[in-house]
Amino acid sequence: MADATPLFIPDDTDPEAISSDVAGLGNLLVTTQIPLRADGSLETGDITAQAECTLEWLKTALEKAGSGLDHVLHLTIYLTDMADRPGFNAVYTRYFKPPYPVRCAVGVSALADASMRVEVTAMAARKAVS
What pTM was computed for the model? Predict the structure, then answer.
């Protein structure tokens, strides 16, 4: 019996955190992102500002791991207020183009910080190496 494909965890950009930025198995990558600004502070603005920060971090994390938004297969979007879904979608369609990834939006009562309105978990394929 062949060995299972090892778990892939790229260099962790925040070794003090309790979660890696991206993990993977074989050609599949998984990452969860929150609304962080470029300086690492939490974006506490409206859903548009938080969605932009979240999707920018998603883009960056995937690119560092050898993938990109165009290789996202599935997204789970966690919203603390489902009324924010249209606002999130307006930002989402600037980052993703058809054919869109499979996705699911889930309403939650709270996220890790009370000011967070959105969190995103994505599964993506690594880009083929030529």
Answer: 0.83
